[in-house]
Specification:
- This protein has 398 residues and is of the alpha+beta class.
- It is built from 15 helices and 18 strands.
- Helix 7 packs parallel to helix 10.
Amino acid sequence: MKHFVFTFLLLFLSNCISPNEKNDLTLELHLKGKEYTSLTLYGIHSSEYTTKSNLPFSFIKFNGKLVNGNWLFTIPDSLHQQFEGYLIRTAPFDFTKNEDHTLVFSTKESPNPKRGDIFRLYEKETVLEGIYWKTTSDQVEALVVEDTFAINPTRNYDVFDIKLKKTYTDFDLQLCYPHFGALSSSNYQEDLRMCIDIVKQYPNSKYLIQSLSQYGSNIKKKDLEFIFGNFSQPIKESQSGQEIKKYYLTEKNIMPVAFDTLLLLNAKSNNYERVIAKGSKYTMIVFSASWCGPCHKQIPLLKEIYKDLGKDLNIIYISGDEGDGITRWKELMEKEMIPWTSFLAGDKKEGLYQQYSVRGIPHSILFYPEGKYEEIDVRIKGDREKLYNLITKIQDEI
């Protein structure tokens, strides 16, 4: 009897001591061709988490351990559920040189391989075998580093060619099809057939359903239904599957709403006001929300534009926040000391999105004094130069 009780207690204690270890995710890197003294994995919190936490950005760092010549990272599952992606830095951000150094996983086996440094993990254990391929660099408008912004930093990428499995894992699929579901208008039918074939081959892929939910708005409804129908039932019932059904496959009768005479609630004054005032100024409408990470990243750039062009350019925020999100939006406006006007879309949001083809945020539209308008993305150098040329021309004529 004593032996039985002792054995039972041992089993009970062993289960109590290591539940987190059983739920840990591991990433193991077998890298050849280039050596590192340290590697740091950054878990990037999802927009849902940052909204609940009232944080514009949030990261958690995991230091890699060198074990038998391979790099090992361990992520508790409870934290993994909060992340929308990961990146690996080969060195801390260099504020003196304004440079960043990261790893990029790609593959020579795909004609259109993944090129970015942000990736997702789907399996409990991910083992990557990679050979150093090349180092590339580019310059970006702004970068979130820890709890601050870096403006116009240079990003250096060490690219590793990853050996793919015979049967692709979800990690392999994201390397081979980095924009799965983004069907081009010029090659629509061929892209559609490819999507259908891939889903038929990998009906249980969490990556494919997640990517499809991101790009589903660009696919015709009947075609999206056919692609979606080839996924397994558990994948259809996943969070991404539910989002596809809710946002893309459910019939909606939405009446477009234009800004012409529209009155919306001013987030600061709590008064209903006309969004676009009559006059000779250009107006840039920026659709945004408190939970939108890319929208937050754009704030320093918008402030720079406002400083340079604000005399002859109206910038207007349209927030899609609802419920508790409205409070978070107002707090964000105050914290960032936003100088331009901010409106709440309220129940006009879907109508505005329909009228101005807003499929994702941030989304900006430039309204001309004479009434015409066009989409503009100030994160793109060409669009930004066009905006500066337009406003500078007005300033020169005065």
